[in-house]
């Protein structure tokens, strides 16, 4: 499965995230984008299976992140999304965005949750439409 990482600047955090994702041989980070406009350009060209979108708060706090989310979900086929939040408490507008199997919410430091979300999206994408329940 191909993965696009969005919202993490070059540096240690990006390298740690990339290595965590690629520790599983079924996932490859094909690109990263620190800004929304670059993220959408990469997504339209690369059509990632999964987008890992890191947020500092909710979509209400960052309308550009909402645009990235909507853009990658509008692809054909839609990209699965892992919403990584750095917020202490989960913003309510992120819970609304989560769809079983296609969109997952995890805390930025939760490596096990990240891998569980990637595997769930990957299995659904490999076997069926990622937006439909089996």
Primary descriptors:
134 residues, 21% strand, alpha/beta, 5 helices
Task: Write up this protein.
It is globular, with a radius of gyration of 13 Å. It has 5 helices and 5 strands; from the N terminus they run βαβαβαβαβα. By secondary structure, it is α/β, with parallel strands linked by helices. Helix 3 links the parallel strand 3 and strand 4. Helix 2 (36-46) runs parallel beside helix 3 (63-73). Helices cover 42% and strands 21% of the residues.
Ordered list of secondary-structure elements with their pairings:
Elements: E1 2-6, H1 12-22, E2 28-33, H2 36-46, E3 50-55, H3 63-73, E4 80-85, H4 92-97, E5 103-107, H5 111-127
Parallel strand pairs: 1-2, 1-3, 3-4, 4-5
According to DSSP, the number of beta strands is: 5
Helix content: 40-55%
Oligomer: single chain
Poorly predicted parts: none
Strand order within the widest beta sheet: 2-1-3-4-5
Estimate what percentage of residues fall within beta strands.
15-25%
N-to-C CA distance: 19 Å
* Main sheet: strands, sense, barrel: 5 strands, parallel
Please tell me what the overall shape is: globular
Radius of gyration: 13 Å
Q: What string, H for helix and E for strand, traces the elements in order? A: EHEHEHEHEH
pLDDT averaged residue by residue: 85
Class by helix and strand content? Answer: alpha/beta
Number of helices: 5
Short account of what is shown:
The chain has helices spanning 12-22, 36-46, 63-73, 92-97, 111-127; strands spanning 2-6, 28-33, 50-55, 80-85, 103-107.
